[in-house]
Structures are given as C-alpha cells and as structure tokens.
Specification:
about 400 residues; alpha+beta; Globin-like; Alpha-Beta Plaits; Arc Repressor Mutant, subunit A; 3 domains; six-stranded mixed sheet; 17 helices
Length: about 400
C-alpha cells in the first residue's frame, strides 16, 4: 500500500517536474522529487554492488578494503548516490560537502602515485550500475518517458561534477607537492651554502628528492636573464638551483660524470656563469665562494659561456684577497715604482714572461711576447740592475710572480 501511494504521488508529480525542468536547466530538475524516496531505499543495495564491481573490474582498486583506501572507496560510493537522491529531492541542495569528498579522492590518487584514469573509470562504472538499478525502479513507479531520459542525463551530469571535483583535488595536491618540493630544494641550497653537516644534508636531500652526491660543483650566476635558463635547468635532474635570490646559483651533482658539464654549458650557453671547483659535497660552500670570487671580477661585457675555475685555480687564489696581493706588489715590485708608467709596464710584462718560461732565455721570452730577442735582452739588463741579487732567490721570484699575476688579474 505504501509503495502504491508513492507511485501515485510520482505520477501526480510529473507536472510539477516539468515546471522544475523549465525553471532549472540541470537534468535532475526534470525528475519528480518523490523519486528520491525510492532511490534512497535502493541505495542500500547499490553501494555494496558499486564497491564490489569497482574492486573486481578496475585493477588499481583490486585490494582489501582496509585503511584509508577502504574508507575512501566506500565513503565515496555512499556519498555519490546519497547526494544524487538529495538533488532529486531538492534541486537547490548544496553539493559542497560531497564535493569535498570527491576532491579528497582526487588528492588521494595523487598521493598514491596514480593518474586519474582509474578514478574516472570507477565513476563511469558507478554511473552505469546506478542507471541499471534506477531505471527499472523509475519505470515501475510510473515515471514518464521524458523523465526517464532526464534520469540518465542527471546520473551522468552528477558524475561529471564528481569527476571535476576530483580533478580539482588532484591538481591541488600536485601543486601542493610541487610547492613543498620547491621549498625543500631551496632549503637544501641554503644548507649547502651554509656548510651544513652531511647527515643534515642527506635528510634534506631525501625530502627534496635530490640524492646527495659524493662530489659537487657550484655555479655562480648573474641575476639577469635567468628566466629562459630555468626551463632548461628543470630538465637536468642532477642540478639543484636557486634562481630567485639576489645572488642566484646552482649546484651540479657529480660533475665529473662524462657529458654532464657539457650539458650544463649548453643550457647556459647564452649566459655568463662561473663553474666552481669540484669538491666533496660537504664543502659545497667553498666551491660557491670561489666561483663567486671569479664572477665578481668578470667585466660587465664578458662573453657568455661557462667559465671553469678548475682551469685557473691560481687566479682564484690571487683574487681571493686583493689587499694581500696589493701588499705583495708594493713590497716585491718596489724597484719599478720610480719609473714612468710606460717603462714600468714594459718591464713588468717582460719580467712576468721571463718567470713563466721554462728556460728564461731571451729567444723564448721574445717568442712569448712577440718581440725581437735583442729587445728582451735590453729589458732584462734593466730589470737585473733594478732588482739585483733578489732574482736569484727562489722565494723572491715566486712572490714577484704572484705580485705580477695579481696586478694583471686586478686590472693594473
């Protein structure tokens, strides 16, 4: 008797449903609100069927219903059909609570490392099962043919809303993970720059998904024009970069691996950068300090490319303490200070070439400078008169060469 009365009510409600359909373009607006009572009763049997078939037909979900997975799949199925009944009963029902569930399901798929394909397949399967149960139910209840079409449309429109919410949750989780990863990587850069201990670096490296290498090299970058390089650097999993600070830099893991430095040089081909020496990872800060020391001495119009500190470590040493190099010059090059600038420059050039050649012979020095040997002999006689026996002292010669190289590096 109760069911018969419900059917009579549904038949009487068909005219009301047509009005609702006119007022509300969403497909469930075309359904008689009384159908929701029958749908709720049917959901008791539908939810276990949906869960069972999802686990049977979709390999990704073919596992025991325990933990977060079991709660999620059962809650998702129950909430989906319950909300559909609410929409049929009241077109103004708010779906926000249910949408939170579907967003959570999307986030869960990201945490599990899956794409959304399995979840979307589960939604489609649930929609087909719901239609198979709701359609005979509606026909027995005397729902008009036009409303039967609306029932199918309503089911799949509801599934579309669920899927959209899951896509949103998936995207949010991915963005959150990307943000957390960026923060962890910036933190790892800060720890490397700060000279943190190896256990601290290893733990942060795990969080940053950057396995700690045995050896590393820093690269000092200029802050301008890095936007174009960022995309290329993201394709190199062996690079850890901080491009946002006022002193941008990056670290290259295991630079001695064949082809690795060449790949980095290609990415940075249009920019001026300085590659620090390759050293143990716990000394990464030293590599960066040396790279920045060289970078600060590069002229503003320096040609783009990757400058290698490893190829000029003596220059890095001299650039490290400009005041000390200047003091060395004052003490060891004092005999040249009374000369005219032109003569002093010529003698400094000749003296450095003499110190740098293997034999120190006039022909060898002349070939190095592009001069006639007799010109070199004349200059060397002047140098010997100025310096005297000092040039016979190996320590003095070493310090004189350092002073001359330092003056050249520092722009004298």
């Amino acid at each position: 008797m109760a069911v018969s009365k419900q059917m009579q009510g549904l038949a009487r409600g068909s005219g009301e449903a047509q009005v609702r359909a006119h007022m509300h373009p969403r497909p469930w607006a075309a359904l008689p609100s009384g159908l929701s009572v029958l749908i709720r009763a049917e959901n008791v049997r539908l939810v276990p069927e949906i869960v069972q078939e999802i686990r049977r037909q979709i390999p990704e979900y073919a596992r025991p219903l325990d933990g977060r997975f079991g709660v999620g799949i059962q809650q998702g199925a129950a909430r989906a059909v319950a909300q559909f009944a609410e929409l049929v009963a009241d077109d103004h029902a708010s779906p926000e609570e249910s949408l939170r569930v579907y967003r959570a399901l999307g986030r869960g798929e990201w945490r599990e490392g899956r794409s959304l394909d399995a979840l979307q397949a589960a939604y489609r399967l649930g929609a087909r099962l719901a239609w198979r149960r709701y359609a005979p139910l509606a026909r027995r209840a005397g729902v008009p043919a036009a409303a039967m079409t609306a029932l199918a449309e309503a089911i799949f429109a509801h599934i579309d809303e669920m899927a959209a919410a899951s896509v949103e949750g998936y995207a949010e989780a991915r963005a959150d993970a990307a943000g957390a990863l960026r923060r962890a990587r910036r933190r790892l850069v800060q720890l490397l720059v700060g000279g943190a201990a190896e256990p601290v670096l290893a733990e942060c490296g795990r969080m940053a998904r950057f396995p700690l290498p045995e050896r590393i090299a820093a690269v000092a970058l200029r802050p301008d024009g890095l936007a174009g390089a960022a995309a290329g650097l993201r394709t190199m999993p062996t690079v850890l970069a901080d491009l946002e600070g006022h002193q941008p830099c990056l670290f290259l893991a295991d630079p001695e691996t064949p082809g690795r430095i060449e790949q980095l040089a290609e990415v940075l081909a249009d920019r001026t950068a300085v590659l620090g020496p390759t050293i143990p990872v716990v000394q990464a800060a030293q590599s960066l300090r040396w790279a920045r020391t060289v970078a600060t001495r590069l002229p503003a119009g320096a040609a783009p490319g990757l400058v290698h500190c490893d190829r000029q470590l003596s220059s890095v040493l001299l650039l490290g303490d400009e005041d000390l190099v200047a003091l060395l010059g004052v003490r060891r090059l004092a005999p040249l200070e009374g000369l005219t600038e032109k003569r002093r420059d010529r003698l400094e050039e000749t003296l450095l070439a003499w110190l740098e050649t293997a034999s120190g012979s006039a022909p060898e020095v002349a070939a190095r400078l592009g001069l006639h040997p007799q010109t070199v002999r004349q200059r060397m006689r002047g140098i010997e008169e100025l310096f005297g026996d000092v040039l016979a002292d190996p320590d003095a010669r070493f310090e004189i060469e350092l002073a001359l190289r330092g003056r050249r590096l520092h722009g004298r």
